[in-house]
């Protein structure tokens, strides 16, 4: 008799996040993120508060002759809830290029690779190590004050929850 492996039960996360991006100097910006999420996994059903901050500096621009816009930055993220504490921090690189779409729109595909320190403490897991988050997405700018984005994320290494994620969102100017 050959043992049949049991299927891996994966859960899901649903949440809402808001962000504020600021820039006081050309080619340098920083941001703050905050939100709530619900994690439904086989070992836990949790509510969590997510807070984060990041900055990035443009290293190359298409308008200066580079084939892509290239930026380097770093981020810090904290997820906290009942029996849940996740800290991630580290540098990342982002490459993108904007293309005209229609009369006033712009579509900007991007890719990002990071190297993050991750510390995870839950009721069933206590782990610290390195995480390699990779993001691939696109942002469509209808106007300077209205943007739509779509992103796929994959994380290798130490993580809690799903390795992959799919996100959609909008940005409104104020």
UniProtKB/TrEMBL annotation:
Q: Which domain of life is it from?
A: Bacteria
Alphabetical list of Gene3D superfamilies matching this protein: 2.40.160.20
Official protein name in the record: Porin family protein
The uppermost taxa in this organism's lineage are: Bacteria, Candidatus Eiseniibacteriota
């Amino acid at each position: 008799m050959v043992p049949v492996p049991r299927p891996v039960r994966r859960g899901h996360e649903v949440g809402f996040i808001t962000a504020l991006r600021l820039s006081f100097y050309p080619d340098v910006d920083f941001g703050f993120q905050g939100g709530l999420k619900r994690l439904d996994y086989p070992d836990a059903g949790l509510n969590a508060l997510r807070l984060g901050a990041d900055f990035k500096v443009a290293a190359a621009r298409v308008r200066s002759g580079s084939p892509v816009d290239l930026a380097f930055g770093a981020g810090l993220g904290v997820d906290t809830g009942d029996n849940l504490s996740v800290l991630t921090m580290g540098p990342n690189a982002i490459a993108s290029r904007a293309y005209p779409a229609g009369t006033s729109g712009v579509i900007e595909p991007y890719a990002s690779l990071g190297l993050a320190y991750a510390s995870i403490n839950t009721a069933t897991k206590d782990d610290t190590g390195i995480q390699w988050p990779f993001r691939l997405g696109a942002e469509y700018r209808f106007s300077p004050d209205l943007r739509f984005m779509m992103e796929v994320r994959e994380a290798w290494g130490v993580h809690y929850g799903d390795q992959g994620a799919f996100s959609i969102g909008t940005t409104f100017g104020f």
